[in-house]
Predict the structure.
Amino acid sequence: MWLTLAFTSAALLGFYDAAKKKALTGNAVLPVLLLNTLFSSLIFLPAILSAEFGLGWFDGTVLASPPGTAGAHGLVVLKSVIVLTSWIFGYFGMKHLPITIVGPINATRPVMVLVGAMLVFGERLNAWQWTGVALALVSLFLLSRSSRREGVDFAHNVWILCIALAAVTGAVSGLYDKYIMSRLDPVFVQSWYNLYQLGMMAVLTGLLWWPKRHTSSPFHWSWAIPFISVFLSLADFAYLFSLRDSGAMISVVSMIRRGSVVVSFLCGAVLFRERNLRSKAVDLAFILIGMVFLWLGSK
């Protein structure tokens, strides 16, 4: 069951990336991210009210969750900080780069999760997994070469750095998720971390964007914005429930979720008419083959 949920999450993440790219095109990043956290919070607000006030609206359903302790809220606040950091870097990078470049870079997160598990938890990679790591590194090298045709220099482009930092913090989030999901209810985690992120983004937007809104990137409404929240909420819901399974392996779940790059790549080709697709497809193939090796080594 956890594998099915992981594949469902991957498909939804691909559509989430496409909606994010559409919403961010020519738009201010921080207000878009603020509205994303607002709509995501509204989706799960009934679950919070039901749990905290004992209303029993969702008893016997997957949305039922217990009220949390102070310690549980502390764990969720830390998750909110990690995820929001990844999102801020990722949103700025997504705005300024083709989705067919962003997707493959994000697809290297399973490699970072494996390396992180090796460094933090003392795990050891086998030959299959090392092969997957090597193929992912080769794909990044090839992607850096093909991206130069679009004027994107990996070594000197600040938006590439943003996407790289988003990928690193996203990998940290994946490792942390496996830790907290063995201790907390998934609905409690998802509903409250959305709410905490809303508060954090309101402060950041008020301090950084609002005073300079007339001189910085303007904000305009896009119907893609609520779809960001819908696709992301459904993707995270499936993801957190997959990790709740005692047999779920974070390295495999992380690898499967990065399969979202296939959906986002196709959206980049069909919806955004991006260029150099043939060479990027070769880079993507190396990543996907590397993911297969990671899966084989994690069985």
The chain has a mean pLDDT of 83. The chain has one domain: 2-298.
